[in-house]
Amino acid sequence: MYILLVILFLLLLVFGPQWWARYTFRRYAGVLPRIPGTGGELARHLLDRFGMPEVPVERLEKGGDHYDPERRVVCLSPDNYDHNSLTAVAVAAHEVGHAIQHQRNETKLALRHRLVRVAQTAQQLGAGAMFLLPVALAITRVPSAGIVMAVIGLGSMASATLVHLVTLPVELDASFGKALPVLIAGNYIQPQDEVAVRRVLRAAALTYVAGSLASLLNLARWLAFLRRA
Question: What's the predicted TM-score (pTM) here?
Fold first, then answer.
């Protein structure tokens, strides 16, 4: 019974933020006539307003809303691109917030971009090391070979965890340091909608929490395994 409760708690910890974010997005996804434009139109307007006319807004049939720093493109899902809902407006402003961070070359976003490149290489090396770990032990029968492989594998997991941890403040800033002040100061939302928009922006920022927690738990699991080995 105790083990079952622990498992349920860990599942709630890892997947709870993601479930809550999806619920929040759906809750405020209804079209509202009082919102003068769609998420795609707002994104285009804000990019022009902040001096980024060269940054396009793409309507994605597949994949989630995001800002692509390599191509410098704001990507929105069909619902958020086409509809004038509170979710669409808030998500569009959040993704433009990332474009503003990029334009200003803000330290946290630049650090995250560098770490992502390092983590991608480290994860490829780590995946290969963890796959070859039992083979190396069987062939060499030298414990140090296994230790080297394990360290490489753990290093790759640690790099992914670090990327997730750096991502969280970047996301929070895009929501509450950029999007919300712009929406309020520009009168893009009405006062009665502010609470709902705050919830959507919080959900947009916390979509990365599940990944961060899962990465930390995976790293802890492997550390515990190697300690017992």
Answer: 0.77
pLDDT digits (tens, 9 = 90+) for 103-160: 999 988 887 777 666 656 655 555 555 555 566 556 666 555 555 556 656 666 666 6
Burial 114-123 (b: 16+ CB within 10 A, else e): ebbeebeebb
Active site residue 95: yes
141 contacts: CB under 8 Å, gap ≥ 6: none
The residue annotated as part of the active site, out of 58, 70, 95, 171, is 95
Specify which residues 67 forms β-bridges with: 74
d(CA 92, CA 65): 8
Highest mean pLDDT pick, 56-70, 102-116, 146-160, 188-202: 188-202
